[in-house]
Write a structure and sequence with these properties.
Layout: H1 11-33, H2 57-71, E1 75-80, H3 83-90, E2 97-103, E3 115-117, E4 135-140, H4 147-160, E5 161-170, H5 174-181, E6 184-185, E7 200-204
Helix pairs in contact: 2-3, 4-5
Length: about 210
């Protein structure tokens, strides 16, 4: 029989798979029925293959508020590979500021014109309407703990910012962060919704509320 060569799922695996899909459908149904907020953290799930780890709700709120204060009234904020902060900023209805999100993950294109596709390997491959030094603050969270990734992301940050930088990355990157961006470590310790193996820290180049 030709069907003999086709791999068959065991009844246990099939049942587990069906349960997974059912749970997924229920989650999607709950999102719709509860008037789902597309800006809430976790509305787009982490993709670990893209080195995505979302901040805890408290950390995202703290960093968003810091960015708002640093940007000032009518300020412009750029979130580079920091979608959790972008989402928290978007929850601030009626606040006088503008924000955009630079991200490699095209799922974030659901945010419309505020989404800008970004690949740190091409740090200055940016839209023409993204003018140099046009943001009051840039908050960035490079996806990888490597000097190459930080150095390339730093090019983007320096192109975008008028001066203020808020960098989130591993504690082991302190020396490289100072070298490439002139930022210093803060007392504030950011947390993630899932615990990371590497200690994480924030760095700034201005007098911030994170100390």
């Amino acid at each position: 029989d030709d069907d003999d060569d086709i791999p068959q799922l065991s009844s246990y695996t099939l049942a587990a798979l069906q349960e997974f899909y059912l749970e997924q459908q229920e989650r999607e149904g709950m999102k719709t029925s509860q008037g789902f907020n597309q800006y809430s953290i976790g509305s787009i799930e982490e993709d670990w293959q893209l080195s995505q780890f979302w901040y805890s709700d408290e950390t995202a709120s703290c960093l968003a508020n810091e960015a708002l204060v640093a940007a000032g009234k009518g300020g412009r904020i750029a979130c580079v590979s920091a979608p959790s902060v972008y989402q928290k900023l978007k929850e601030q209805d009626g606040k006088d500021f503008s924000v955009c999100i630079l991200e490699y993950d095209r799922r974030f294109s659901v945010y419309g014109e505020e989404f800008i596709f970004y690949d740190y390997n091409h740090p200055l491959n940016l839209p023409e309407n993204l003018l140099p030094h046009s943001f009051d603050i840039v908050i960035a969270d490079p996806p990888y703990l490597s000097e190459e990734c930080l150095q390339k992301t730093a090019e983007t940050i320096k192109y975008l910012t008028k001066g203020k930088i808020l960098l989130c990355t591993g504690a082991i990157m302190e020396e490289q962060a100072a070298k490439h961006l002139g930022v210093k470590i803060c007392k504030f310790i950011p947390k993630h919704s899932r615990n990371l193996a590497n200690e994480f820290r924030c760095y700034v180049n201005y007098a911030s509320g994170l100390d």
